[in-house]
Amino acid sequence: DAGVIQSPRHEVTEMGQEVTLRCKPISGHDYLFWYRQTMMRGLELLIYFNNNVPIDDSGMPEDRFSAKMPNASFSTLKIQPSEPRDSAVYFCASRPGGGLMNTEAFFGQGTRLTVV
Amino acid sequence: GNSVTQMEGPVTLSEEAFLTINCTYTATGYPSLFWYVQYPGEGLQLLLKATKADDKGSNKGFEATYRKETTSFHLEKGSVQVSDSAVYFCALEYNQGGKLIFGQGTELSVKP
To answer: What is the 3-state secondary structure (H, E, C) of chain A?
Structure first.
């Protein structure tokens, strides 16, 4: 398996534009997580899904952020409209189900978003 | 609530020095504890884990022991290498399932 695949790797956009980040989890994994990493706030969990259903979106900063998982092999994180303070590295991670304890989360390489 | 606190970085060491990165946690119940490592330009990778009190996780010369009495999970390595330069994250997973809570990360720089 190629691991968790995120696209694009880098995104530069102007303030006010819509941004869509994409993630393909590892096949067979039941859980998918979106994290945001900044120098100021570290690594923050934004939202996670179990079997394509959003379980906890309490980390989503505001209504400008939305995430979907239309099927087991694809998820998107959308920011509309984008703002400079959204600049960060966004990570997607997936992990197996069947007993959550003691299982490893696998991370993608991240999308570095810059909003100017 | 549940949280993880790590020692602040950056930590700069010479090659073959002894490494300790402190991690303490606050959690209800009996969490599992993890150390993840992030090399430059990459995502996080699991380094080691421990699932119950007094367990010792180990990998690649790194070790950490789950100390319930001090709510700690300090990362140690006896002799660091330049290739160990990375950011290290302590994390916990508590019983409610799925969520990993990360510390703020500690950057380690090893000089030749």
So the answer is: CCCCEEECCEEEECCCCCEEEEEECCCCCCEEEEEEEECCCEEEEEEEEECCEEEECCCCCCCCEEEEEEECCEEEEEECCCCHHHCEEEEEEEECCCCCCCCCCEECCCEEEEEC
Q: What is the pLDDT of residue A102?
A: 55
Quickly tell me which residue has 């102007």 as its tokens.
Answer: A14
Of the candidates A33, A42, A93, which has its C-beta nearest B105's C-beta? A42
**Is the Cβ–Cβ distance between A23 and A6 less than 8 Å?**
yes
Nearest chain A CA: its distance from B47 CA (Å): 10
∠ Cα B54 B56 B60 (to 5°): 170
Which amino acid would we find at residue A110? G
Q: What angle do CA B32, B37, B40 make, to 5 degrees?
A: 155
pLDDT, tens digit (0-9, with 9 covering 90-100), for B44-100: 999 999 988 999 999 999 999 999 999 999 999 999 999 999 999 999 987 656 678
Q: Quote the pLDDT of residue A101.
A: 54
pLDDT at A90: 97
- B54 — alpha (psi -120 to 50), left (phi > 0) or beta? left
Mark which residues 9-68 of B lie under 8 Å from A by CB: 32, 41-46, 49, 51
Size of the A and B interface in Cβ pairs below 8 Å: 51
